[in-house]
Specification:
Elements (H helix, E strand, L loop, with lengths): L18 H8 L8 E2 L2 E2 L1 E2 L10 H13 L10 H20 L7 E4 L2 H20 L4 H5 L8 E5 L8 H10 L2 E5 L9 H7 L4 E7 L11 H10 L3 E5 L11 H4 L3 E5 L10 E5 L1 H6 L10 E4 L4 E3 L13 H17 L1 H20 L4 E3 L16 E6 L4 H10 L2 E2 L1 E3 L4 H6 L5 E5 L6 H11 L2 H4 L5
Catalytic activity: (sulfur carrier)-H + L-cysteine = (sulfur carrier)-SH + L-alanine
Enzyme class: transferase
Protein name: Cysteine desulfurase
Amino acid sequence: MALVKTPPTLVRSQPALDDAEVTRIRNDFPVLDQQIHGHPLVYLDSGATSQKPRTVLEAEQDFYEQRNAAVHRGAHELAVRATDAYEDARAAVAGFVGASPEEIVWTSNATEAINLVAYALGTAAIWAERGRGGEAVKDLALRPGDEIVVTELEHHANLIPWQELAFRTGASLRWIPVDDAGRLRMDEAERIIGPKTRVVAFAHASNVLGSVAPVTELVDLAHRAGALTVLDACQSAPHMPLDLAALGVDFAAFSGHKMLAPTGIGALYGRRELLDALPPFLVGGSMITTVTMERAEYLPAPQRFEAGTQRISQAVAFAAAVDYLAQVGPDRIHVWESALGERLAEGIDAIPGVRLLGPAPGTEWHGSPRIGLAAFDVEGVHAHDVGQYLDSAGIAVRVGHHCAQPLHRRLGLTASTRASAYLYTTTDEVDAFLEALGEVRGYFGAAR
């Protein structure tokens, strides 16, 4: 197979990543230096969770060794240091995604972030009816007759919260369909998003197809209708330059564990005026100004949504993760991974009896190349068996419906196998995967 080529639409002024530099990067990740079933580990499951560099591991350890204390509470020096580290981390992550610190709310993960928005929008109607929150909250209230729009390719975390919001408020849930290949039907989007639409929620990049959504077009359609936009950035924040303010979205969610940070930490981005108008999601200590036996008054965002003891060490490590990504360069990472995605797509598509999902090799959907991810179906072999065979060769991939059952159903599948790369993935690892995949049908007697 030919050497990785930089897609022409992604050319940048910085030198491109190459295998030599990626190998050096790979050495920063201790977990990758091991063997699985007697083979060097080839980790192609970064779309599910990324591995962590030493700097991230050390940042969390250092916090516990040097600054561990509750934040925003104590007056002693250690508490001051902990609070500074916590808020510095917020500023670092905000800067990485083109936001202001007060627009970033810490959550456990992206799922919680999306649930926060959906729950708060559901509570807005109750507040409005009972005279809380003023005019701002009235504008956020959903009622019977309103519509929430999602797409047919969403991860369950960006589908089920909206199903539940529709159930609680009496609003209707609608979705933009995909065509037989999985491409969004933008002609249908123009028909569906209209005067009744109050929320449009969609993934920036598909965790199954590797395709990138037409964000500008969807945001324009939503805002012309007066609707809020909610972006699932889980598969974009780790893999491409991201400027949420420039994209014009109202809310966005992303998870730390997919972008070199620990588990248990994620973030919600929201425009400041919207966050300040939303009712809180969780209530308790640390997010109040005044409490009586009858009622409480709440702090503005982001503390408004951060009740209780927070994910302090994880936030500090999250800042170390975005610092690592910034030093490598998000644009360089995007170019490298898009090239790896094309290499995966070409190799998979060339194997008889294997169906590649998403954009065909050499094509772009909605003007964007594939990210470094490819899912596929092996004729005559269940996805779990494919995964087990690859694991026996030391290759870690994802199997199942990838929390996207409606999309798989639309494509005529119950499950697929997914290989996903990251900045530490080499071309040799991709080629090792493709070689092993080419053996699967023969091993299971499915080849004709």
